[in-house]
Sequence to fold (583 residues):
Amino acid sequence: MGAEFVQFSLTPILIGILASIACALPGNFLVLRKQALIGDAISHVVLPGIVVAFLITGSVAALPMLLGAAGAAIVAVILIEAIKRLGNIEPGAAMGVAFTSLFAGGVLLLEQSDTSSVHLDVEHALMGNLESLIWFKAQGWSSLWDLEALAALPHELGRIAVVCALVIVLTVIFWRPLKISTFDESFAQALGLPVGAIGFGLVVTAAVAAVAAFDAVGSIIVIAMFICPPAAARLMTNRLETQVTWSIVFATLSAILGYVFAGYGPLWFGAQNAVSAAGMIATVSGIILALACLFGPYRSRIGVGREEAA
Amino acid sequence: MDMRTPLALAANNGHIPRDIAKIDAPLAVRGMTVSYGEKPAIFSVDATFEAGKMTAIIGPNGAGKSTLLKAALGVIPSLSGEVSVFGNPLGVARDRIAYVPQRASVDWDFPTTVIDVVMMGLYRKTGLLSRLTGAHRAHAMACLDRVGMADFADRQIGQLSGGQQQRVFLSRALAQEADLYLLDEPFAGVDAATERAIIDVLAGLKADGKAVVCVHHDLATVSRYFDNVFLINVRRIAEGPVTAVFTPENLHATYGGRLATSHIDQLDLVAGA
Ligand SMILES: Nc1ncnc2c1ncn2[C@@H]1O[C@H](COP(=O)(O)OP(=O)(O)O)[C@@H](O)[C@H]1O
Ligand SMILES: [Mg+2]
Fold:
């Protein structure tokens, strides 16, 4: 693999991997807490956030877009909590109410305002723009040591790298409280752990990961990565530590294989054009989940070995 | 909010000192009221649990037994009420309490092993990041051994019987090396051998001067297992030594019509006062 790979494929693959890992990590805990839908909720509310940011600033620059999306994600999280508490409604329904209404609000805003001229279309929101995040200045592998070329790396790479590192550090630091409060909330509270703050922190971290990933790769990967790698990983092991490791492996594998299949797969089948990398990455993560369901060593967990031992 | 002065409260309640700061019992609760909706689940409950004693909390389903424990631990917010743990506020004395929630309250499909669950009992000692050492593991194994579960250390918790799961929960409480043990229905759905094993461990704790409080369902075993009994049905009905308060009158007051007289007659009760 030579110069062409470095120039056209290296950065999209790296961005795909980092985005996938950043979403899959908190996804492990969200899935175990039966809150996986929150990834869906967040990626839906990102749209109104971006539209509002555009209406306020009048620009499509990355920073206001990101801030708008992050703000909308936090509004959604608070809204979900409020609906849950005040309405005494189960979490899934609260998420459904919050994200459909916010998403609908975003679509209305988009229709009513004069944003159609700018590049704020639905396809971009769904599929992102992974293939275009190329490293134009790269001449080959040697560019990795060339400061001038490095400075011309796509901005998305730096952003998602920072967010991914942040997610990893937070997961490591708060591992024990996260694990204890996810498994046994009352016990965690009796220990004096701030269970509410831990849950909120988890969701906000997931929101930040979702927004950063959305910016680079679109919402379809975000939704897939919150659920597929963790759910597949759960079928590979009975230990949380191992599950999280597997989820990282599956996220990475999805990103690499998805990108390669999208670029070359159609050619192998005699088709002319490449397909969307983001869509293919999400598809591969789904295929991995299907394979884990069929062949994972711990797939038929429920009811196994529950014979009453005296 | 109770606006009355401590003096007035003391006068209200006869021999029980209402000024909670003066009580150094392992756990004292005063005027605890908790409500999930409109109706209170427990109403103005006073309770005092003693050291070196095993106390049964008894009452019909939905009487607020779990709610009382959770509110005392700050797991759920209360509308009013005070809690003192060994004469201190809860926040100061938390480390001296071990809590065993109802077994059905957690997802046993969670990806974790028996020894991992027991190690959760070490959290107050290890905190966020300090490494778990061989000594920690040895301590956890010793706690598992006390409940006869050492051979299951590396099993996934979902692959245990109900009785074994309950013993793992007890083992996690032992790992906390607490002075006050609050257990919510530790005998629910366990076989006779497990019940025996759990009672032996709890009796050992009592012998060491610890306070043990169990939400308990089986009226037939109350006098055999417990020293004290606390009867509740939203309000406190009675509390004290089994020999004094485990009477037909008090059981009728607690269960209302839900407990047939013929059933009560079969119990090993103290004669009505
Ligand atoms: N999380 C909750 N939300 C709403 N109501 C609850 C909740 N937990 C308990 N309750 C209600 O409070 C009352 C007391 O419950 P609980 O303390 O669990 O009773 P017990 O443990 O004595 O069976 C019951 O009527 C129960 O339905
Ligand atoms: Mg209960």
